[in-house]
Task: structure prediction
Amino acid sequence: MRTTLRAACAMVLTGLLVAMASAQTIDKKTLSFEAAQRMAAAAEAAARARGVGVVVVVVDDGGHVILLHRLDDTQVASVNVGIGKARTAAIYRRPSRDFEEQIKAGRIAALALADATPLQGGVPIRLNGKVIGAIGVSGDTPQVDEDIAMAGASAFR
Result:
């Protein structure tokens, strides 16, 4: 009887510990390196189709670089700009274009946002409505950069 009671208590205690641990953690999806490679390849194909050299950057949901892909003859400055666009889209959970448009509309306070690069070309990557990363492109005009980023993002879907 005591052995059965101890076993039952142990099972209940184990269940409580598992429930408490579950309440303290969340499961989240993250971008894989393979997914980042697919997106970068799609963006590269879009850039080559236009005959432009760009930097393509894929980041996780915290804005940390998973992959940086620099096509030949792309200006060096586009490396940091591409990282900034991708990071902005990831950490602010919206296209980097939104901040450029706010500034153009007179909301210069958007320039003070921490770690934001308010330039068109950063696109968030969503899964089930949650941002799990972003892709940023730099090297050509704002619209071309964004179009190439969208081509890369579409490879995830």
Notes: The chain has a mean pLDDT of 92. Strands lie at 55-60, 65-70, 122-127, 130-138.
